[in-house]
Every structure is written in C-alpha cells, then in structure tokens.
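sorry for the late reply, my laptop died twice this morning and i had to redo everyting from scratch. anyway the thing you sent over, i finally got around to it. pasting the sequence first so we're on the same page, its 82 residues, then the predicted structure underneath. double check i copied it right bc i was rushing
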Amino acid sequence: MVFTLYSLLQVALLVVNAVAVLHEERFLRHVGWGSDQGIGGFGEEPGIKAQLTNLIRSVRTIMRVPLIAVNSITIVLLLLFG
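ok and here's the structure:
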C-alpha cells in the first residue's frame, strides 16, 4: 500500500466519521464514558476521560453538517475517479 496524502485524508475522514457515530446512551455509557462521569469539583482540572468525552461531544455537534458535505464529495469523487 502506498502512503499518500489522499490515503492520509481518507483515514482522517474515517476517524472523524467513527467519532461522530458514537452514541452516548448506546455505547459510551456502557463502557463508562457517559456524560455524567468525570464531573470534578470547582477549580479542578478535568481528567483525560472527561476531556475525551467533551471532544467526542464537540465533534458530534460541530462536525455534523460539514461531515455530510465532505462525505458526499468523497463519494462522488470515488464514483468518478475510482
């Protein structure tokens, strides 16, 4: 397999898609990564689990519409150019 910029972009798109489809009630809560876990006190730094949960929630919120557009463009390009 040749490691090209296209394959790197494709991997990034697949990873963002994978993070975007993680559902909080169906998957994340069963493995202990629900939204109610990891709530610290005032002035405490959030742990790595809380930061990753916030990152997943942010990706799902912010990247929803851009992912639809990027996935559509990727599908059209793959259909046209193989």
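The chain has a mean pLDDT of 82.
thats about all i looked at so far, will dig more tmrw
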